[in-house]
Amino acid sequence: MNSYYNWGELLALAPIAVSRLEKLIVMSYQPRMDFRLNTENLSSGSYEFIKYQNNFQTTLLQIGHQGYLVFLNAHVNIHKIRMYNSKVSSHIKDAVRYLMSKNELYIVELLPISLGRIKEAADGNKMLLHQVDSKLRTVIELIQATILCVTVTKHINENELERVELDLKSLSGRRKTRQDVERTSALNVAKGNCLEVIRALQEGRQELENLKRDWSKLKDFYSRMEYFVAKATENSIAFIEVVRVIAKDLNVLDDEEIFVNLLEKIQKANEASFLVRGVSDMYASVSVKYIMDQIASQGDIMARIDNSQVEIEEIRNDLMSAHRIRDYIKADEISLRTRFVDRHNQIMDEYQWMLESWIVPAPRIESSAEEKSKFLSVSSNTKKKNNFVVN
Fold it and tell me: How many domains in the chain?
């Protein structure tokens, strides 16, 4: 499992990312954040991510809302993956029994149902995790587009501030008319507005940069999980392909090489399903304890006190949650490895009957060289694809 990910370090950022979203939402309700964003320099691809292109306040709220939806989508989808994989081992067992029975009714009517459910789980796993990764990628692109807008808007306001200060300087040191006094007053108001917008943009950009950094690391977590599950479920597909080929000519089951290869595919498909469910269980537990619970406990976000002491306390709590996630996942990884060894041995016991029934096989009908070659070709191709290893 170490070959594919470092779950604890990557997922430990989740509570911090949730708090950053909360801070963005609090910021979005502050009147000083209600100003126009400049979107002129955005490419059409980036522009479409920002729903309210002309307002910084609503864009911050959009980022916060979509960020929460990503965590909710991940929680729901990975729970579905758990459900998808809860019955895969039973479907594998049923498929093998139908195949080994050599009963035409079972093979024609029931075997396709079991194989279809295994494939449904494999396809569902990849689709659901790809959906999470895609939604998270969209939020990161939205954050990046907003940072670009903030940079351009800040530059425009800095230029405007420089122009106002030059006008004020030109009016100073001379006897002022009534018009000069009114103009000076208007320029001072404009200067104050520019300074307030620039400060708000600086604060907003800092939070957005922090959010982008943390969410990029979270994306690594979901991307690695997507890759892990994709590699694991390839073993289910390999099992399906081999069973379908054997079902076309049951005589090949009497060939030792083909029979051993079938046993290998059964083992790998069962182990892959077990691991996918184990990793999904691990994420779901972390999500409930440290992500969804934190989001649900926010309550009325506008009622939160925004001062330095509260912020320090929140950061301290976030770091404590991060450490707890690392410790929790580390313990769960160790437990999963132990359970994986137990499951490996259990699989061997579950399919011992196949070996016993094959030791005294039915009278053998020699399969043609062409059929055997066709099977071994499929077997070889699936073996090349399935290099899923657990250390």
Answer: 1
